[in-house]
Amino acid sequence: MQTRVSSLGLLVPQPKPRAKPSPACVRGIDAASLEALPAEAGIYRFLDASGAPLYIGKSVNIRSRVQAHLRTPRENAMLRKTRQVDFIRMAGETGALLLESQLIKQWQPPCNVLLKTAAPAYALYLPKGSLQPQLVDHDDADRYSAHGLFASRRTAEAGWRAQVRRHGLCHALLGIENTTHGRACFAHQLGHCRGACIGLETRIAHTRRVHKALKQLDDYAWPHAGPIGILESDGELTQVHVVENWAYLGSLSASVPSLRLPRGNKLDVDTFKILFAPLAAGLLARVDLQMSCDGRGVRRCAFAFPGQEG
């Protein structure tokens, strides 16, 4: 490590200068593809000699973000393999996030770590005659008549406990707390239980409220009868992102005004994480889609963008 003499005559160690990316790394990348990168939102892909993605990312400013990659020494190994960088413009950050998640799962780029696998999803199922909900895979939610949508066992437990407190349910009857027969549970002593444990509420009434509390968790599951459209625009590009059962199905635009919908959309927890909170807070603009179905049961959705005929 280099040193310098301070004003007090002390030897002060100097940090090593930060290594710069090898010019050879950048020279190996098609210059025209770098020049074509826009300063708007979307996704970008670092491609190898065969055209396969090494890395997929998103940004509200594609050009700036890719330039940051080119200046990052620890990414030299990826840059040495890169021959071209391409991009897909999106109308904003929401669309970029949705498309990035979808493409990473589709292409499995070796330099991406997150989003490569579909995260598990869980629901709560109440067995007949029981008041203790059990976790089941969300894909089996309809078969079990299960409720809710949770990304982990921990969040499922926390979500159910929040409902228990919100509805004043009895911890003893739910198996959360052990108590001596005839004595109030500790939750009742704290004012969080209406007293089903000591006969202040009938078990039938309490059971009904348990089912009501579980039913309210369905707000986290897909609450719509079909696909919805989310409008996004940056002033130049306007898109409608199509989502159903918390799965991103694609984006409509003036050049692509209709979309064929796949059958049996599998829930995507990452899409849920991207959209649930801003949708619930009213931060995203929802629009109505024009739905159609042919004689073979193939569904299509469309949106009439301004300036289109019909």
From TrEMBL:
Return the PANTHER family for the record.
EXCINUCLEASE CHO, UVRC/OXIDOREDUCTASE
Example of a GO biological process term: nucleotide-excision repair
- GO cellular component term, pick one: excinuclease repair complex
Q: Which UniProt keywords apply?
A: DNA damage, DNA excision, DNA repair, Endonuclease, Excision nuclease, Hydrolase, Nuclease, SOS response
Descriptive protein name: Excinuclease cho
Do you know which InterPro entries this protein is assigned to? GIY-YIG_endonuc (IPR000305), GIY-YIG_endonuc_sf (IPR035901), GIY-YIG_UvrC_Cho (IPR047296), UvrABC_protein_C (IPR050066)
Q: Domain GIY-YIG spans what residues?
A: 39-113
Source organism's superkingdom?
A: Bacteria
* UniProt GO molecular function: endonuclease activity; hydrolase activity
Presence of keyword Glycoprotein: no
- What are the top taxonomic ranks of the organism? Bacteria, Pseudomonadati, Pseudomonadota, Betaproteobacteria, Burkholderiales
Region feature Disordered, mapped onto this chain: 1-23
